[in-house]
Amino acid sequence: MSRIARPRHYLMCKPTFFDVRYSINPWMDPSLATSNSAALGQWKWVHDLLVDLGHHVEHIQPIPDLPDMVFAANGATVVDGKALVARFRHAERADEAPAYVEWFRRNGFREVRQAAYVNEGEGDFLTAGRHILAGSGFRSDPAACREVAEFFGREVLALNLVDPRFYHLDTALAVLDDDEIMYNPRAFCPESRDLLAQHYPDALLVDEEDALGFGLNAVSDGLHVVVSDKVVRLGAQLAERGFHVIGTDTTELMKSGGSVKCCTLEIRR
Ligand code: ARG
Fold first, then answer.
1. Looking at CB atoms within 10 Å, which of 119, 150, 158, 263 has the fewest?
2. Alpha-carbon span 169 to 126, nearest angstrom
3. What 3-state DSSP class applies to 136?
């Protein structure tokens, strides 16, 4: 199967102030030591790789006392040049949102709005071809689906997450190509599983072990899949489908519950 990489545009945030000081997901244990330089090294590796692959990467300035700001995917959803900026569930991250509003305004986006309902951006809203897949259950409000559908004028597939370890949609499901996805069925309620099976009968189903290795928190450009190297079977499964898999160490970022995808917000002009 021949795959084609499409050049992408990403927004990333350097983990200058990365830390695990509070716990808002089951991965975060503030009593464990974190290393800022390890986080910076892992982030830079992903960043430089995306640039080397020919993608355009822009930066948003990190802010002191916002230790989760490295997870730029949560900042907004950006489709057709319109930016719907996040409204975070937890007070610890709320101050990230104004920085995104400002970034998109300053960078010439014609429509920039902060979501009215709790909405954690591309953490929970993944664009796949003409559709937007939406996750709720832990972070984004179910009502955010309607707001996203109206704002972007796109069909939204609402999915319900049920396992707190997979608290954002991008920890349970990844978009590989326009209409091709991979996911961990056990992260979803039975109705959502049925919906996914109906819409994506050829999806790659990922087992729990690889999902726990952050295998679904992957970034694909249609050919290259950049993914945590803590997966067992996923690399071979993706290679069999014609993808070029690039594994990377994100263990430091995983202490906060994030990996490759969490660090990249895709901008669709
Ligand atoms: N510690 C962050 C939080 O709990 C991690 C966010 C990961 N981002 C993501 N897109 N899944 O909010």
1. 150
2. 8
3. strand
Largest distance between two CA atoms of the chain? 47
Phi, psi of 110 (to 5 degrees): -75, -35
* CATH architecture assigned to 9-266: 5-stranded Propeller (3.75)
pLDDT tens-digit series, residues 235-247: 999 999 999 999 9
Contact 218, 225 (CB under 8 A): yes
Probe ligand 1: pick from 20, 71, 166, max atoms within 8 Å of CB? Answer: 71
**The pLDDT value given to residue 128:** 97
Q: Is 140 in the pocket of ligand 1 (CB under 6 A)?
A: no
Q: Tell me how far apart the alpha carbons of residues 42 and 256 are, in angstroms, rounded to a whole number.
A: 13
Q: What is the pLDDT of residue 65?
A: 97
d(CA 243, CA 198): 24
Q: Are 227 and 215 in contact (CB under 8 A)?
A: yes
The pair of three-digit structure tokens given for residue 254, joined into one six-digit string = 């995983």
Give the pLDDT confidence score for residue 92 in this predicted structure.
98
pLDDT reported for residue 161: 98
Q: What is the value of pTM for the model shown?
A: 0.97
| Domain residue ranges in the chain | 9-266
Taking the C-alpha atoms of residue 59 and residue 39, their distance in angstroms, rounded to an integer, is: 16
DSSP-derived pairing of the beta strands 155-160 and 131-136? parallel
Does the annotation count 262 as an active-site position? Answer: yes
The catalytic position among 13, 131, 224, 262 is 262
* 75 within 8 A of 101, measured Cβ to Cβ: no
What is the rounded CA–CA span in Å between residue 247 and residue 244?
A: 10
Residue 57 φ then ψ, to 5° = -115, 125
Residue closest via CA to ligand 1's atom 7 equals 258
pLDDT of residue 1: 72
* Token pair recorded at residue 38: 């390890």
